[in-house]
Amino acid sequence: MFVTLTALLALSFAPTICIDPGHPSEVGRGTRGKHVSEMQVVWETAVSLKDRLEQKGYRVVLTKSKLEQKVVNKDRAIVANKSLAALMVRLHCDAASGSGFTVYYPTQQGTSNGIRGPSKEVLARSNILARKFHSAMAVALQGKLKDNGMKSDLKTHIGGKQGALTGSIYSKVPVLLVEMVVLTNSKDEAFIRSKKGKEAMVGALLRGILAATNP
User: Fold this and answer.
1) By the 8 A CB rule, do 185 and 134 touch?
2) CA separation for the pair 126, 213 (Å, rounded)
3) CA atoms of 133 and 139, how far apart (whole Å)
């Protein structure tokens, strides 16, 4: 197959994105709605997002290779680190009383098993990229899904205990986590199960990544 020099140069400079479909991990298999599991939703979203990003010329690494594969959060971060990802996007679904999507990012260092992180550089870069990512995602989902804004890792159960989420502590690349929907909310579950909802979510995540990783 003939490949032009321009195409080769574009490929060589393409950003790498690490997509982390959360669960199963050391904290379990994730939450469940009435009809679908978090594990299924995030895996299907990750695979679709990978395809869309590759069509845009990105290199994409997933933190696992199949639905049921268990990967602990430290190892998920290591996958992103080894790939030298421009951004690690962690996909989850929430279990709460509310509705909508939320973007989390590390705002300070935390400690897990004696390891302290992320670095000040990763904290600063994560802040910048998370803001760009959230703004674009919010525009894409306006009128379709409630926007709960950007929040610190400290606002999560584990992040509040450690100072940052485990995946953030071990990350040496910019990192953010998206709670795509509140899966225990029937309307949110119906949204993410529908064809239009799935397409809207993948499109919003794509727009977020494009905004965060382009000058």
Assistant:
1) no
2) 11
3) 10
